[in-house]
Every structure is written in C-alpha cells, then in structure tokens.
Specification:
5 helices
Length: about 120
C-alpha cells in the first residue's frame, strides 16, 4: 500500500524557493552550462562566461561545491592545477538548464519585440 505524505504548502514552497534561488541564479546557470561537457580550469570557465568577475566566479563555484553539484580536483603539479567538474547531481541539473538556455535564445527576439510594443503603448 502506497501512503502519500500530506503536502505542507508553506514548507514545500520555502524549500523549493531555497533551491531555485541557487540553481536559478544567472551565474550558477552559466557555470553549469560551461561545465556540462567537460571539466574546466578556473580561467577557462571565466572565459566562457561573459561579464563574470573573478570574485563572483569563485563564490559561485564554492556554493556549487558546497551543494554537491561541482567537485574541485587539485592535481599535485608545480604549480598545482585545479579543475572543476559537475558531479552526478550537477549533471542532473545541466539538462533542464540547457533547455532553458536554448528556450531563452530561441525567444529572445520575440521578448525584445514585445517589450518595445509594450513600452511604445505606455508612452502614448
């Protein structure tokens, strides 16, 4: 017999909000996209993401590592080499993030046109 746990809407919404705030962040999404095909070193990731500062990339990678979505691998070379890769959890996020990114690119023109129409109607 399958027993369904009652839904606590307030608790469920706050839990969803917490996770969506992290994974829906603009920098998080771009880091996940940058890492979805292969591990990358810090400066390689930075080159992939237009406009991200070194501090923001460091902060984003640390948060993703803390959440278990990114792993940091240090090679004991001279100098040490650090690479970042998605974990299984991070890869599970990469598919919907890529789909959302593809949707945004496909509809960007429509959204800009709608904004112009909206703004023009309000200025009359």
């Amino acid at each position: 017999m399958n027993v369904t746990k009652p839904i606590n809407a307030a608790a469920d919404c706050s839990g969803v909000s917490e996770v969506l705030n992290r994974v829906g962040d603009k920098w998080t999404m771009q880091v996940v996209v940058a890492l979805c095909d292969r591990p990358r070193r810090f400066n390689d990731i930075k080159r992939c993401i237009d406009g991200i500062s070194q501090q923001m990339l460091t902060r984003t990678l640390k948060m993703l590592e803390r959440d278990g979505m990114v792993e940091r691998n240090v090679r004991t070379t001279t100098p040490p080499q650090v690479a970042y890769a998605l974990t299984a959890l991070g890869h599970s996020l990469s598919k919907p993030v890529r789909q959302l990114a593809e949707w945004a690119l496909a509809h960007r023109g429509d959204i800009h046109a709608n904004r112009q129409l909206y703004d023009a109607d309000r200025c009359l």
